[in-house]
Amino acid sequence: MTIYYSLTFMLLAAEMVTFCFLVFPLPHSVRKKVFGFLSESTVVAKIAYALKISFIFVAILFADAVQRMFRVTAESELAKQNGTAHTGSAQLENSLAARKFYSQRNTYLTGFTLFLSLVLTRTFYLILDLIHTQEEYAKLKESTSGSSKSTGGAESSTEVAELKAKVAELSKKDRDFETLKKQAAQQAAEFDRLATKYNEATGANVSKRD
């Protein structure tokens, strides 16, 4: 394997390890710190920029590998059509098979490297959006609970005020009732006094006439 395909294989292995790390179940606090560092670090941004350039070269290798695979496949089909009865046909067939195998291997290697890079990028941003959504949900939940508590406090204070008003009204009615009782008692006593005087006066007048 040539040096650039060896580097491509190393890049593919690094992508597989990174993908396993991204999908590994981590606590929310740890995941938030890790992805916050990856999205805000300038060093990580420079590494990502270098990887983008390397993926451009991998794409060129992929195009070359696909071209070689089609060419070797066409040569193999042409050799089969011409027959293998002539001298050295076995060696030629083995050579074509080896070239076909290497071209297919290089195609799959570069193709999976490019495909996994797209998957990693999309997975990273999806997890980042999920973290932001969870934070917004937590904030919304706290604000909702706080507003419900304040609303409950306002309702309880309103109920207390209404109860105080009812108690004051009942106390006022009680005082009015006591005042009416006193007035009625005074009026009854005055009526008894006047009735006694009237009876005394009437009795006195009757005795004088006799």
TrEMBL record:
InterPro entries: BAP29/BAP31, BAP29/BAP31_N, Bap31/Bap29_C
Function, in words: May play a role in anterograde transport of membrane proteins from the endoplasmic reticulum to the Golgi.
Principal cellular location given in the protein's record: endoplasmic reticulum
Residue stretches making up the BAP29/BAP31 transmembrane domain: 1-139
Domain Bap31/Bap29 cytoplasmic coiled-coil: 158-204
Keywords, comma-separated and alphabetical: Coiled coil, Endoplasmic reticulum, ER-Golgi transport, Membrane, Protein transport, Receptor, Transmembrane, Transmembrane helix, Transport
Coiled coil: none
Family the entry assigns: Belongs to the BCAP29/BCAP31 family.
Location(s) in or outside the cell: Endoplasmic reticulum membrane
Pfam families from the UniProt entry: Bap31, Bap31_Bap29_C
GO CC terms in record: endoplasmic reticulum membrane
Protein name: Endoplasmic reticulum transmembrane protein
Transmembrane parts of this sequence: 7-27, 47-66, 108-128
Record-level GO BP terms: endoplasmic reticulum to Golgi vesicle-mediated transport; intracellular protein transport; protein localization to endoplasmic reticulum exit site
Membrane topology per record: Multi-pass membrane protein
